[in-house]
Amino acid sequence: MCTNKNSVNLIPGDIAAERIFAQEMYMKEIKVGLIGFGTVGRGMAQVLMDQGGRLAKKMGAAVVLKKVADIAVSQLPEQFADIKLTKDAQELFDDPEIHIVVELIGGIEPAKSFILQAIAKGKHVVTANKALISQHGREIFDAAAKAGVEVGFEASVGGGIPVIKALKEGLVANRILSIMGIMNGTANYILNKMTDNGVPFDAVLKEAQEKGYAEADPTYDVEGIDTAHKLAIIMTMAYGMQVSLDDITTEGITAIEPIDIDFAKEFGYRIKLLAISRNHGDHVEARVHPTMVPENHMLASIGGAYNGIYFTGDMVGNVLLYGLGAGMMPTGSAVVADIVDIARNIIHGAEGRVPCLSYMPDHITSRSITPLEKIRCPYYFRISVVDEPGVLSTISGILGKNSISIESVIQKSRRQKGAVPIIIRTYEAEESAVRKAVAEIDSLDIVADKTVKIRILDNSEES
Ligand code: HSE
């Protein structure tokens, strides 16, 4: 058990003294091996160093980062000089002193093999790898259950926001009725800049890349794939069901134009890339797409590169988790939170106390996903038409024939020769009817371009 050794005089903010305190106060040490010393790896190491004393006071033990494996790093920064650096991850798995292996290299391979090797050697695992957990989680969790070790993945969703912990623990008493979230900071940053500065998508993306806010290859962020990975993980935990990436309808933000943002404002909405899942009992919705969010909805005010995840539980009601979904220190904070959870369980001999996926493994079922055609919500259409008599009545006729009821229409006056946009906001309609109507509208000679369709978040979607 932990022994209180010497006491150290602590001056608030004196990190070195805090570290000595952590090591001297407790004999018990939890040793960690880290694979991948990139941005998040450095963040995690720095959090452990800066918060060592505080963590020891909260855990009754010291967390020690013993070894780092990274093939591309030849020397660790000076403050980490005590940590052994290797190019061979196997050294971490073979080290009997290491309790927890942290994987922060991202991607599917070799991350997956490293994690499975660590588990096979009896190590607990912490990862921030959403692509891996959402696509190969089952194999990893099965292996972990067999080996009696834990897998922490808090940093895979919402960066520094404790989303996973909230689902596993804080909201444990609830049946989750719906999940709505802005889970990609890059896409949110781009949409916010487009909205606030009236700049087109390509220009904002270029600027974001130059400033280092967006990746050189932004496909996963702007096409909604990164958000879908995160939604798959959250849905699995919220509902206790297997969800694969293919179950999630995913549409990105690349087709959004400033004109749609302007009309959204005129109708009282902001366009957000939203992950949406509503629980209908025997089936659940699973979709990621640009959505017009009413300006008075809390998710509409999630600014900059921030994330916001909005749960509705049957007991608790609505809960909004808000914070930085990426970045060195916020993500490092989430990785360390997982390390501390596991370390506490090791210290108290309570490994596996909280199931990794919230539900016990044999209660993770395969419920069905609501087909997209059956989704019902209000819609925004931007139809490019030749401005001539009878056009509006032709279009409204097609919508009426498909049981789509118009809520309001805007047509701006013709400024120059050519097509003009007709903007239509509908009442709630079924996706299958909308697709049929839009196909018919787009086949008309008076229609000059493909109709833009954006789903609208009805405030009633909260429950
Ligand atoms: N690329 C993600 C984002 C962060 O822009 O939010 C990591 O999931």
Describe the protein in words.
This protein has 463 residues and is of the alpha/beta class. It folds into 3 domains: 5-159 and 329-363, Rossmann fold (3-Layer(aba) Sandwich), CATH 3.40.50.720; 167-322, 2-Layer Sandwich (Dihydrodipicolinate Reductase, domain 2); 373-462, ACT domain (Alpha-Beta Plaits). It has helices at 15-25, 39-50, 52-59, 90-94, 111-120, 130-147, 163-170, 185-197, 201-210, 219-222, 225-239, 258-267, 328-347, 391-401, 431-442, and strands spanning 29-35, 62-69, 84-86, 100-103, 124-127, 151-152, 176-182, 249-250, 269-278, 283-284, 287-294, 306-313, 317-324, 368-369, 376-377, 379-386, 406-411, 419-426, 429-430, 452-456. Strands 7, 8, 9, 11, 12, 13, 16, 17, 18 and 20 form a 10-stranded mixed beta sheet that branches. A 6-stranded parallel beta sheet has the order 3-2-1-4-5-6, sandwiched between helices. α1 packs parallel to α3. The radius of gyration is 25 Å and the shape is elongated. The model is unreliable at 1-10 (pLDDT under 50). The structure holds L-homoserine. L-homoserine is lined by residues 184-186, 221, 226, 325-326.
